């Protein structure tokens, strides 16, 4: 990557785009709604169960002008979800300002392990044990989505729920490879602790991206 391109990436004017697609949101509070997804490359959180490990190495994904991405979004949707990888590795200020100027609602899905940037209509925080969110990020969360892979994750979920605001929606989501084992446990847990809701990866059941 030449210096000019690197500078543009550092400013968020270009971003390492892995893929972009128009689909149905499959998880969390906005399940079932149409949205344009922008998946950025780059992540060092390292979840062993990650289903998009090909996103981890940002160098594999070409720097793409944020203006080009915004133009693609406007052809399809009025809501965009920026995910990864870990999108907050990059400055989100430029692209979210451009999106909102085009009347596009901006959503993010992030581990919160990097500094907050961007202008968001919906902020989904999904903390990971490997690399916890920064303290500044918790207050931004509209939605806390905790992935349940084993029994100890319920305790971790409660620890993280104690750090977000009172208006933040709380979700427990079974890790896909463990869904048969963990889903019944999540159902039982939510019935005993009704502050939580259940999130399922419905896009996988629907066989869509």
UniProtKB/TrEMBL annotation:
<dbReference type="GO" id="GO:0000287">
    <property type="term" value="F:magnesium ion binding"/>
</dbReference>
<feature type="binding site">
    <location>
        <position position="39"/>
    </location>
    <ligand>
        <name>substrate</name>
    </ligand>
</feature>
<feature type="binding site">
    <location>
        <begin position="24"/>
        <end position="26"/>
    </location>
    <ligand>
        <name>substrate</name>
    </ligand>
</feature>
<feature type="binding site">
    <location>
        <position position="83"/>
    </location>
    <ligand>
        <name>substrate</name>
    </ligand>
</feature>
<dbReference type="GO" id="GO:0016840">
    <property type="term" value="F:carbon-nitrogen lyase activity"/>
</dbReference>
<feature type="binding site">
    <location>
        <begin position="49"/>
        <end position="51"/>
    </location>
    <ligand>
        <name>S-adenosyl-L-methionine</name>
    </ligand>
</feature>
<comment type="function">
    <text>Catalyzes the complex heterocyclic radical-mediated conversion of 6-carboxy-5,6,7,8-tetrahydropterin (CPH4) to 7-carboxy-7-deazaguanine (CDG), a step common to the biosynthetic pathways of all 7-deazapurine-containing compounds.</text>
</comment>
<dbReference type="InterPro" id="IPR058240">
    <property type="entry name" value="rSAM_sf"/>
</dbReference>
<comment type="subunit">
    <text>Homodimer.</text>
</comment>
<comment type="similarity">
    <text>Belongs to the radical SAM superfamily. 7-carboxy-7-deazaguanine synthase family.</text>
</comment>
<keyword id="KW-0460">Magnesium</keyword>
<keyword id="KW-0411">Iron-sulfur</keyword>
<feature type="binding site">
    <location>
        <position position="85"/>
    </location>
    <ligand>
        <name>S-adenosyl-L-methionine</name>
    </ligand>
</feature>
<keyword id="KW-0949">S-adenosyl-L-methionine</keyword>
<dbReference type="GO" id="GO:1904047">
    <property type="term" value="F:S-adenosyl-L-methionine binding"/>
</dbReference>
<feature type="binding site">
    <location>
        <position position="209"/>
    </location>
    <ligand>
        <name>substrate</name>
    </ligand>
</feature>
<feature type="binding site">
    <location>
        <position position="43"/>
    </location>
    <ligand>
        <name>[4Fe-4S] cluster</name>
    </ligand>
</feature>
<dbReference type="GO" id="GO:0008616">
    <property type="term" value="P:tRNA queuosine(34) biosynthetic process"/>
</dbReference>
<feature type="domain" description="Radical SAM core">
    <location>
        <begin position="30"/>
        <end position="209"/>
    </location>
</feature>
<dbReference type="Pfam" id="PF04055">
    <property type="entry name" value="Radical_SAM"/>
</dbReference>
<keyword id="KW-0671">Queuosine biosynthesis</keyword>
<feature type="binding site">
    <location>
        <position position="47"/>
    </location>
    <ligand>
        <name>[4Fe-4S] cluster</name>
    </ligand>
</feature>
<comment type="pathway">
    <text>Purine metabolism; 7-cyano-7-deazaguanine biosynthesis.</text>
</comment>
<feature type="binding site">
    <location>
        <position position="50"/>
    </location>
    <ligand>
        <name>[4Fe-4S] cluster</name>
    </ligand>
</feature>
<dbReference type="GO" id="GO:0051539">
    <property type="term" value="F:4 iron, 4 sulfur cluster binding"/>
</dbReference>
<keyword id="KW-0479">Metal-binding</keyword>
<keyword id="KW-0408">Iron</keyword>
<dbReference type="InterPro" id="IPR007197">
    <property type="entry name" value="rSAM"/>
</dbReference>
<keyword id="KW-0004">4Fe-4S</keyword>
<dbReference type="InterPro" id="IPR024924">
    <property type="entry name" value="7-CO-7-deazaguanine_synth-like"/>
</dbReference>
<dbReference type="InterPro" id="IPR013785">
    <property type="entry name" value="Aldolase_TIM"/>
</dbReference>
<protein>
    <recommendedName>
        <fullName>7-carboxy-7-deazaguanine synthase</fullName>
        <ecNumber>4.3.99.3</ecNumber>
    </recommendedName>
</protein>
<keyword id="KW-0456">Lyase</keyword>
<feature type="binding site">
    <location>
        <begin position="126"/>
        <end position="128"/>
    </location>
    <ligand>
        <name>S-adenosyl-L-methionine</name>
    </ligand>
</feature>
């Amino acid at each position: 990557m030449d210096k000019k391109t690197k500078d543009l990436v550092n400013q968020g004017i270009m971003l390492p785009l892995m893929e972009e697609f128009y689909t149905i949101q499959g998880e969390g509070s906005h399940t079932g709604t149409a949205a344009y997804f922008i998946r950025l490359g780059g992540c060092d959180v390292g979840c062993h169960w990650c289903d998009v490990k090909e996103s981890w190495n940002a160098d594999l994904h070409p720097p793409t002008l944020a203006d080009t991405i915004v133009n693609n979004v406007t052809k399809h949707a009025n809501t965009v979800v920026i995910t990864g990888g870990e999108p907050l590795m990059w400055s989100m200020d430029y692209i979210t300002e451009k999106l909102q100027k085009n009347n596009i609602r901006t959503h993010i899905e992030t581990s919160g392990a990097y500094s907050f940037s961007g202008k968001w209509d919906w902020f989904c925080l999904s903390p990971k044990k490997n690399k916890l969110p920064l303290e500044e990020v918790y207050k931004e969360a509209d939605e806390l989505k905790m992935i349940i892979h084993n029994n100890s994750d319920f305790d971790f979920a409660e620890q993280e729920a104690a750090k977000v605001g009172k208006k933040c929606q709380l979700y427990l989501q079974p890790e896909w490879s463990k869904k048969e084992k963990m889903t019944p446990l999540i159902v039982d847990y939510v019935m005993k602790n009704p502050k939580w809701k259940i999130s399922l990866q419905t896009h996988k059941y629907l066989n869509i991206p």
